[in-house]
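Standup notes, protein team

Yesterday: finished cleaning the Neolecta irregularis set.
Today: Retrotransposon gag domain-containing protein structure.
Blockers: none.

Input for Retrotransposon gag domain-containing protein:
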Amino acid sequence: MTKASHMPPPQHGLPAVPSPIILLLNELKSLKIEQAKTNMELKEFRENFKANPCQEEEPKLPPTFHYRQPSVYTGKRDINCVYEWVHNMNDYLNLTKIPPSEKLLFASTYFDGDARIWFDHTYRDLSEDPTWEQFKAEFVLYWKPWNYKFELWHQWKKIVVTSTVRNFANDLRNLRNTINLFSPANAVTEDDLLERFLQGVTHLEGFCETLYSDFDSAVVAADRADQDYREKNRRPRLLHHLKLTDRRQSLDDESF
């Protein structure tokens, strides 16, 4: 028997199995085709963008703010309360973009007590509601104390040092600003402020009021003198307290 007679007979009708190298080359070829297609699309996109730079962008939403709401006004006849409520409400209405036709109704929801009764009695039966600007003037005219200017000047004359000189100076400055805001015809000048401050600190030891011509420097010097006075008087009280504590301790020890 010859050597060829031992070889298996050829199988007809079955496809030939491709080589792994051929499969890998075909895969790389497909990837190159896809990459070339993608590069072409990117190139077209860049060219279109350069040709039409003013393309519409998605609208950006404005940032969300949480505004501080005004306080409820109950009808207290205090010039500071009336002023603060009107200005806080006016700022809030402007910031929140409330329509002009709804401003008055919205503001009325921040009334309570006597103020609520006054609003319902005065404005509910009107055929035409006043504008917000008209209402502000009527509100201030009705609720501000009739003698508020006298009260402010009375406070100015009677204010004294109740705690520290620094606090007295701050209270005096705030009162001056309030008077100038509500009574500009009788405004308190810087010289008036200095004179009133010096009148209130004449009791300080080691402070000479004639050496100072402006408010800030006088406050600094008076505050230093006040602190020195408090420190000097604090030491004897502290020693007295320690002596009492030691005596109580010795009595407690003797009781045992």
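Follow-up from PR in the comments: The CA atoms of residues 117 and 247 lie 65 Å apart.
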